[in-house]
Prior knowledge:
single chain, 77 residues, mainly alpha, 5 helices, globular
Amino acid sequence: MDRVKFVASLDEDTRRRFINNCIDCNTSPDFFGFWLKNGPLTESEGINGAFCWGTTREGHAYWSRVNANIKYEQHEV
């Protein structure tokens, strides 16, 4: 998936946090622009990079909600 399209596909709140984390958790404020220009990625690569377990404020709580949502969706099928 194209990185620009991937970011655009995120809901507004997630997109805002995604961009902020890409900027705040890297050594250069120019990182996000560089990242957008790189090749295709999988959704998990994008989300894992921006919502790191140990270095972002979402950490455990964010991934716990993701896990709960996945389990709920699998149960509904």
